Amino acid sequence: MNSGEELEKLERIMERLRGEDGCPWDRKQTHASLRPCLIEEAYEVLEAIEKESAAALREELGDLLLQVVFHAQIARENGDFSLAEVITGINEKLIRRHPHVFGDAQVDG
To answer: Is the pLDDT confidence value at 27 over 60?
Structure first.
């Protein structure tokens, strides 16, 4: 299983859910309407960590990832940014914040 391929699949699923023939509930969501879902999923991740349950943590991290992908899809539809730009941004930030590890080196996939 390749995480990049799975992430692309998740992105396509979300695009379809938000598309013309997609899910009515998913289509009407906005950044604002999803705020409670994002917070709830973050708390559920914390609960899974507290329980020390790897299975629960895996599931809840998936739910939290869904929120990230959902918001990125809405942003893409609005012409603001894409999921790829979110990922690029965090990759660059991690490298920039860890010069003691990466120095001037570039990390290639």
So the answer is: yes
The conformation of residue 54, written as its DSSP 8-state character, comes to: H
CB atoms within 10 A of CB 76: 19
Cα Rg, the chain, nearest whole Å:
16
Contacts of 7 (CB under 8 A, 6+ apart): 69, 83
Using CB atoms within 10 A of its CB, is residue 68 exposed (0-12), middle (13-18) or buried (19+)?
middle
CB atoms within 10 A of CB 48: 19
Q: What is the pTM of this model?
A: 0.91
